[in-house]
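User: Show me a protein chain along with its predicted structure.
Assistant: Here is one chain, sequence first, then structure tokens.
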Amino acid sequence: MEDRIGAACKAAGRERDEVRLLAVTKTFPALDAALLADLGALDLAENRDQEAGEKAEAVAELRPDSGIRWHMVGSLQRNKAKSVVRWADEVQSVDSERLADALAKATRSALDSGQRDHPLDVLIQVSLDDDPKRGGTRVSELGQLAERIAHVGDIRLRGLMAVAPLGIDPVQAFEKLARASERLRADHSNAREISAGMSNDLEQAIAHGSTCVRVGTALLGGRGLASP
């Protein structure tokens, strides 16, 4: 995987350290996540709150000083906000003002109670085909949501996340995302992250400015590293 990312960066005229590898550990046990941390993969992602909370707690016991950062990349309901802020350092799937409000409220409560010691980083999930079934906010509504996040407090806007829709050329999808990111940065200079590209299309994403590739299958295979 390191070779693929490095080659993609070189082809795009970018430095390797401009692109972060986010290891998607969904369905894999805590020991596999701990082994990834041993190998230097300290950014780990989950897409289900219930599984993630238990796993993050288990990994913390296995590797208490690892410095792992956990990322929520799956669809998130507002009623899960309180739970998510207990384990996630970053939520990459914010797609509505109501969810942003819920996360901000839950983060403030967690800060006040000592469950957290830092604000929650968030990315706006962008829909690249305007299909509500896939999740994500429309590009045309991106500015309004970004302003809400910027002013609600206790959550920090870091950038955008998107998935290249099936049936659409990934190059076209990532070009659209790159343009949206450029417009966002004009008003929110710290929102520089572009989380895009997975096992099948990370090269195209890196060529169009991705700063974070989310890789599961190509990294872990069809079953866990340490699973029986």
